[in-house]
Amino acid sequence: MAEQQTVTFIITRQDSPESAPYEETFHVPYRKNMNVISGLMEIRQNPVNANGDKTAPVYWDMNCLEEVCGACSMVINGTARQSCAALVDKLEQPIRLEPMSTFPVVRDLIVDRERMFDALKQVKAWIPIDGTHDLGPGPRMPEKKRQWAYELSKCMTCGVCLEACPNVNDKSNFIGPAALSQARLFNAHPTGEMNASERLNGLMEEGGIDGCGNSQNCVQVCPKGIPLTTSIAAMNRATNIQAFKNFFGSDQAH
């Protein structure tokens, strides 16, 4: 009987936010069309490392398993991406799994992406609604504008663009490409544009758009193909105009 084929994972582990990282190797049974998540599930069911030692199951985040939620982002063979969409057959072995280095590690492959959500707060990435009564269907968005705005709305806050950006690190408070693009999305909304100046002023705060070095790594790695550099250029122009308005007192945000 032929020996069962296996997949080798070398996983960077960390028992707590304060502890030192270490590597642990696992061999899991191969199945056709399996993804990285499938391998991690096998380890969870049978947490025995390559030395035959019983160990703690590997911790990782996941949710939708359809590359929509962004929760399962990790560094796979040196590239930040979603582990649900990473097929074992298309990866070089051994498969190395690491947590994204831009964010603090919680445990193993789980990271704290709080800085992304703080960035969304800074640029007010939402549409404020005044009251709870029925406001009707609201203004229509022209179809051409809706099409490119829809591309921006695909952002799943996965953190891959921040991982690739050299300006996002523990020595910087740069909010990153995702928040810049979301400001453009909500400013394009017929209702959201009423608060456009507030978002632009948020972009001009510390850690805002001035922190972008235009390396363009973000647009190359975005799993949703969002035109991040186009958004950054648009927000550069918009914040310059807003700065003039602020200076001459014609459009101060309150």
TrEMBL record:
Q: Which gene encodes it?
A: frdB
Note the SUPFAM superfamilies from the entry: 2Fe-2S ferredoxin-like, alpha-helical ferredoxin
Q: Which Gene3D superfamilies does the record associate with it? A: 3.10.20.30, Alpha-helical ferredoxin
Q: Under which name does UniProt file this protein?
A: succinate dehydrogenase
E.C. number(s) listed in UniProt: 1.3.5.1
Q: Which residues form the 4Fe-4S ferredoxin-type domain?
A: 146-174
Checking InterPro entries in the record gives: 2Fe-2S_ferredoxin-like_sf (IPR036010), 4Fe4S_Fe-S-bd (IPR017896), 4Fe4S_Fe_S_CS (IPR017900), Beta-grasp_dom_sf (IPR012675), Helical_ferredxn (IPR009051), SDH/FRD_Iron-Sulfur (IPR050573), Succ_DH/fum_Rdtase_Fe-S (IPR004489), Succ_DH/fum_Rdtase_N (IPR025192)
Q: Does the keyword ATP-binding apply?
A: no
Matching PROSITE patterns: 4FE4S_FER_1, 4FE4S_FER_2
Q: Name one Pfam family in it.
A: Fer4_8
Could you give a GO molecular-function term held by this entry?
4 iron, 4 sulfur cluster binding
Q: Supply the alphabetized keyword list.
A: 2Fe-2S, 3Fe-4S, 4Fe-4S, Iron, Iron-sulfur, Metal-binding, Oxidoreductase, Tricarboxylic acid cycle
Look up the domain of life of the source. Answer: Bacteria
